[in-house]
Specification:
Distance between the termini: 27 Å
Structural class: mainly alpha
Number of helices: 16
Number of strands: 0
């Protein structure tokens, strides 16, 4: 039986509603990892460190897709909950068009200055060539990645999450196959990795464009629309936390890399790359859950169904708490084998990575709550509170922690700084939740 946004959600139905989004994000994370896996094992440690150094710049641009996707889907699902499907389709169409225009403009600007960014991030002479080459190829097609991120959220709002998942699987399989051909077979190095990635982005964005352009049986389709700057502003404000989260996370990654170059050199950056790849998979579960449930929350908020908001919040907090315990336990157990997948060729790097991953994994006990509560307020169309949670978590706590704690504890302080930051962030998130309970009656 199909799951609809308007349903009452038991644990079973909630799982059925969100699992496609969880799988979609997990698979997205897996194929994002593939480039690093192939480069680390078939090109070399320096190239692996180089792509990890420049990756935060690429993610800053892709954050536009998360902003338009999450903020726009929150607005569109609210309008659907109010019963105005025609308006919902107009707003949906306008958001997609806006993401294309802004994506092209921002990508062009970053493309021009990519070498300067790489130098600012600490790229050595040994790394700069791969940084610039890999970065420019990906940024040249970044608008497709932005669109892919936009559609990930809107497939859930359209009540077609499984279709969204299948498209991501197709894009991911494309990336994996082409990585093997370009890197291993044709020995194209970082160029091959970048080409494989952008082709997968094209697959993941063009298919949704075709789907929503034609007559379909989902809640959404492209229609003729006029630019409504108020609606665009609302969508951007709703998605501000996701934009801040991704931009700030990229900035914090840059700070991590600078600290690691100081305390551990190129090995530190490589180890951090492995941890990021491994954590992508675990974090994807929480991100996928938030993407899957946000349109449901937005719909019931628009429909003024307060009992269902209470139900969704209570069940979500319980599920996230259990999942965080499981994730942390798995990472502690699998730290060594996960590290070996990437850096088994270097015993010193393997030892460093395994220890770092075990420290870093403690953050998963808390991370899920921070991620969900930011998305919860986005779904309620309260971008200010959502952005506040994200800003305090990343810009304040993570940035300060990664710069200060290593002064006291050295390299271990770099890895543990994320745990400290998540702890203080969850306090802020719960304060916001309690403070707004009367307003939203959840």
């Amino acid at each position: 039986m199909a799951v609809h946004l308007s349903d009452h959600f038991t644990y079973k139905k909630l799982f059925k509603a969100v699992y496609p989004s969880i799988l979609m994000m997990v698979f997205t994370s897996i194929y994002t990892i593939i480039d690093g896996l192939f480069i680390s094992n078939f090109v070399g440690k320096s190239s692996f460190a180089a792509i990890n150094l420049i990756w935060p710049v690429i993610m800053v641009i892709s954050a536009l897709g998360f902003m338009f996707g999450t903020g726009g889907s929150a607005l569109v699902s609210k309008i659907l909950g109010e019963g105005d499907k025609e308006k919902a389709n107009k707003v949906f169409s306008m958001i997609v068009y806006s993401s294309i225009i802004l994506g092209v403009i921002v990508s062009a600007a970053v493309f021009i200055f990519i070498e300067r960014f790489a130098r600012l991030l600490g790229a050595t002479d040994n790394m700069i060539g791969d940084c610039v080459l890999y970065g420019r190829i990906l940024i040249g097609a970044e608008v497709f990645y932005i669109l892919q991120n936009v559609f990930q959220s809107f497939f859930v709002t359209a009540e077609k999450p499984i279709l969204g998942f299948l498209i991501i699987v197709l894009a991911g399989v494309t990336n994996i196959i082409l990585d093997a051909i370009f890197i291993v077979g044709l020995k194209l190095g970082v160029v091959g990795a970048a080409l494989a990635t952008i082709i997968s982005y094209i697959v993941g964005s063009v298919i949704p464009i075709v789907y929503f352009s034609r007559k379909n049986n989902s809640l959404l389709k492209f229609v003729k629309t006029k630019f409504n700057f108020k609606a665009i502003g609302s969508a951007c404000l709703n998605g501000l936390s996701e934009l801040l989260t991704n931009i700030s996370a990229s900035v914090v990654s840059m700070l991590f890399n600078l600290q690691l170059l100081k305390f551990a050199g190129e090995n530190g950056v490589a180890a951090y790359g492995v941890i990021m790849y491994a954590s992508f998979i675990f974090a994807a579960v929480f991100f996928g859950y938030s993407i899957g449930i946000s349109p449901i929350i937005g719909y019931h908020y628009g429909a003024n169904n307060k009992d269902e908001l209470k139900n969704l919040l209570r069940k979500s907090l319980i599920l996230i708490g259990i999942t965080g315990l499981v994730m942390t336990g798995l990472t502690e157990i699998l730290a060594d084998p996960l590290s070996q997948i990437f850096v088994r060729y270097d015993a010193e790097l393997l030892k460093l990575t395994t220890k770092a991953m075990r420290i870093y994994s403690l953050s998963f006990l808390i991370f899920g709550f921070n991620s969900f509560m930011s998305s919860f307020f986005t779904a309620l169309n309260n971008g200010i509170i959502s952005a506040l949670i994200s800003f305090m978590r990343i810009v304040v706590f993570q940035a300060v922690a990664v710069m200060v704690i290593p002064i006291l504890f050295g390299l271990d302080g770099v890895w543990s700084s994320i745990v400290v930051a998540e702890f203080f962030s969850v306090i802020v998130a719960f304060i916001c939740l309690v403070a707004n309970k009367k307003k939203y009656q959840y």
